[in-house]
């Protein structure tokens, strides 16, 4: 069969993209939890029968690069036992997942009994059981302390989930209503993707779509290789440093040795620090996704980010290091850290090859999850902090975006409406604004981080867990740009006393009337500060964003 003509390929590529975008809209409108329908911590992907990424929506980059591993894990586990109407589920980082809070639904798309595609939905749950609420346990020293592990399982048949398995899953979480509702939304979105793909298969046939997918991959590969070929040849090293692992390890080194030759890149992370006791270790799929993210950020936005686009990239890593931990190690923080540091190390190295494409560091993640009782509804709640986001890095094109978020989400995570958060949870935001002087200086400065004061209005004691990094190391400056200010989180008691919160704490006592004061990091600067436009400096001072 001859391949489709260029017009047909353009139409089909955009059709695949439209499907994943529609699936994302369905998720946004049907999920139950704040973490999904407000902060949008979910992602969508389509893979072909060979588990290669065909299309992704613009959601959370660190999810999508890892989702083909989920499809592969299901294919390996069930082989020729996959049937039309099956629903598969997994979250285990050592069996196709990234970290335990991310449940992944995988639905096969069959054409007259032949597997043609996989429809995937990955979504971060508000709780996944384990020793602590909210899915993050900074005290964990093994994965069994982090939550419920689910290797690939057949969750349902005939397009219906099994009620007993769903009950087993939600019973192992602290928020069964939210997790059940979110799981049903995920299944619905995956089936929507299946339905749209079945329509395409009915119109074009499986053989023609398979040829189209191969051609789309080849076009993306050629586009990516043309870009890489213009970069300078050489071998360079980049390094990023994690604050700590929540235990005894400090200044944990992520090292990338990057070789660019012709239209090919090799990224070698083997010289990174040994795996740690704490949960900053990365699973293999997450590490691969982080390297793919770094590469994707340096390509043109028009390059379709599918399997073909990543063919110029080879990744080398060593099992037993922090970027690829051996089975059993805790890894829950990995989608934020060390994925952010992997991206940072790779971009720092490649700044030598393509300086006009490299950007200053984006802020690091510093979350807090608060568990308590809402007196207005007389029920328990778990609230995840997504407000007061850090800033994005400056670039050759201009200043960084303020409160845009971290490397691993690139603006995909939202903080949502302050008023909606106050309506849904016993919280009061005294203020929520840009943090002055938080951005790294440069020819183009970083974006500013956020700042907030948040009063907890429960009628009884609450507990908080923190999970993140960046209270010691700010967002990195690039090519002469300066680092940003680091994070600073403070808990202010109702009696006026204060204590600074560490990035990895368990069981923080929070009393009614206590105030959480957050000062988030900005983004790193790009280029020498002395080359910054004086008019831009004056504008920042007029607006109160720079006071120095």
From TrEMBL:
A Pfam match: Hydantoinase_B
InterPro entries assigned to the protein according to its UniProt record, in alphabetical order: Hydantoinase_B (IPR003692), Oxoprolinase-like (IPR045079)
Region (Disordered): 519-548
Biased composition regions of type Basic and acidic residues, renumbered to the chain: 529-548
Domain of life: Bacteria
Protein name, UniProt field: Hydantoinase B/oxoprolinase family protein
Hydantoinase B/oxoprolinase domain: residues covered: 5-529
Protein species of origin: Plastoroseomonas hellenica
């Amino acid at each position: 069969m001859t391949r489709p003509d260029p017009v047909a390929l353009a139409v089909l590529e955009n059709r695949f993209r439209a499907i994943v975008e529609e699936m994302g809209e369905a998720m946004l409108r049907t999920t139950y939890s704040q973490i999904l329908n407000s902060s949008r911590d979910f992602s969508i992907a389509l893979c072909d029968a060979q588990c290669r990424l065909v299309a992704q929506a613009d959601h959370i980059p660190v999810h999508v690069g890892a989702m083909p591993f989920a499809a592969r894990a299901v294919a390996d586990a069930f082989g020729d036992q996959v049937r039309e109407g099956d629903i598969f589920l997994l979250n285990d980082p050592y069996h196709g997942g990234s970290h335990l809070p991310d449940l992944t639904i995988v639905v096969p798309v069959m054409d007259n009994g032949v597997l043609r595609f996989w429809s995937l939905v990955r979504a971060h749950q508000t709780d996944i059981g384990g020793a602590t609420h909210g899915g993050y346990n900074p005290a964990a020293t093994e994965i069994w302390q982090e939550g419920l592990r689910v290797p690939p399982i057949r969750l349902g048949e005939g397009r219906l989930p099994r009620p007993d398995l769903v009950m087993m899953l939600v019973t192992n979480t602290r928020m069964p209503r939210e997790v059940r509702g979110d799981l049903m939304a995920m299944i619905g979105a995956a089936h929507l993707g299946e339905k749209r793909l079945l329509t395409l298969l009915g119109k074009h046939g499986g053989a023609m779509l398979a040829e189209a997918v191969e051609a789309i991959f080849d076009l993306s590969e050629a586009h990516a290789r043309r870009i890489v070929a213009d970069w300078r040849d050489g071998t360079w090293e980049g390094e990023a440093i994690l604050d700590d692992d929540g235990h005894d390890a400090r200044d944990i080194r992520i090292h990338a040795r990057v070789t660019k030759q012709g239209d090919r890149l090799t990224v070698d992370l083997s010289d990174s620090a040994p795996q740690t006791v704490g949960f900053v270790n990365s699973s293999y799929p997450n590490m691969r996704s982080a390297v793919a993210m770094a590469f994707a950020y340096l390509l043109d936005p028009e390059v379709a980010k599918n399997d073909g686009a990543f063919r110029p990239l080879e990744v080398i890593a060593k099992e037993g290091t922090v970027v690829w931990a051996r089975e059993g190690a805790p890894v829950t923080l990995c989608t934020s850290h060390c994925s952010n540091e992997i991206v940072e190390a790779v971009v720092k190295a490649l700044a030598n090859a393509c300086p006009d494409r490299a950007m200053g560091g984006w802020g690091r993640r510093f979350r807090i999850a608060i568990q308590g009782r809402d007196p207005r509804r007389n029920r328990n709640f778990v609230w995840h902090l997504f407000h007061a986001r850090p800033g994005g890095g400056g670039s050759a094109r201009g200043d960084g975006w303020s409160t845009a978020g971290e490397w691993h989400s690139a603006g995909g995570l939202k903080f949502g409406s302050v008023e909606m958060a106050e309506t849904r949870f016993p919280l009061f935001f005294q203020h929520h604004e840009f943090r002055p002087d938080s951005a790294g200086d440069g020819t183009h400065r970083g974006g500013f981080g956020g700042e907030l004061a948040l009063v907890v209005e429960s009628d009884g004691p609450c507990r908080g867990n923190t999970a993140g990094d960046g209270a010691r190391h700010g967002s990195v400056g690039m090519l002469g740009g300066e680092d940003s200010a680091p994070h600073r989180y403070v808990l202010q008691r109702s009696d006026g006393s204060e204590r600074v919160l560490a990035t990895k704490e368990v069981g923080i006592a929070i009393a009614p009337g206590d105030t959480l004061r957050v000062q988030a990091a900005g983004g790193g600067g790009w280029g020498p500060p002395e080359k910054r436009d004086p008019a831009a400096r004056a504008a920042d001072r007029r607006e109160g964003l720079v006071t120095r």
